[in-house]
Task: structure prediction
Amino acid sequence: MKNIAITIFVLLILVILALVFTSFQVRETESALVIRFGEVVRQITDEPGWRFKWPPPIEWVYKYDSRMRVLEAEARETTTKGAVPIIVKTYVVWRIADPCEFLKSVTTAQKPEVMFQKAEEILLDQISDSQNSVIGQYSFGEFVNSDPNKIKFEKIQNQILEDLQGPVRKNYGIEIKALGIKQLKVSKDVSKEVFDRMRTERQRRTETTISQGMAEAARIKKDAEFKRAVLLAAAEARAKAIRGQGDAEAAKYYKMLEEDPEFAMFLRDIEALKKILGENSTVVLSGDIEPLKLLKQMPALEPKNQ
Result:
């Protein structure tokens, strides 16, 4: 019985060793390459599970973490279109998309941590090249400006990302998912120059606004003076017409007064009485005053010469 137990134990160890050397597991967060005599024979990127292989030295397995990683580049100085120096710090979100190309780009490394370190060195160089190329196409005013509409941060970031994605994916098997400018700095001398320029620009805009306001005020004043002159002329013409009409009406009464003053005064009293009694109103007055005494008796009037 003792020999049987030993035999079973030895067989179990041999089976475990055989599984260790002839199989491997790929997790959901990993990609794997199976290398046979220096050539890639299998690439596993999206099928996690247990796999079998030939034992070393026939086949070797390289496994990579395929999850997203964040890499922050060091703050580096570059120049804008107008040769203004700025300091930019960029970050990227990346992952291994093509393990085969990735392995070729880091063939000098064997350990995974060393591979990723080498990959990040490659990425930093590529980021620096793309960053310098794209930023050199934009002026300083498109990075720092008192007018938010003139700042093109998002466009610049997208252009750096587009410039970086293609070559990195093709040459190194690395996929860049996102890129952003984390920090933007300028030197003390440049800062002073920028603020002086901003103050000058604000002063110019202030003077322009004041000038436009004064021009608008002058236009409004001139327009008001014109309208005033037109209204006064119209009012004067209307007043002359009314005065003419009044003079014409008065002329008739003047003629009547000249011919028969007493009859003319009688007609005037009749008109006044019509106006007084024309509305539903109660008036308490003495009957001896003009023109109410007409209600008591008619005056003895005789027409003048016919």
The longest strand covers residues 85-96.
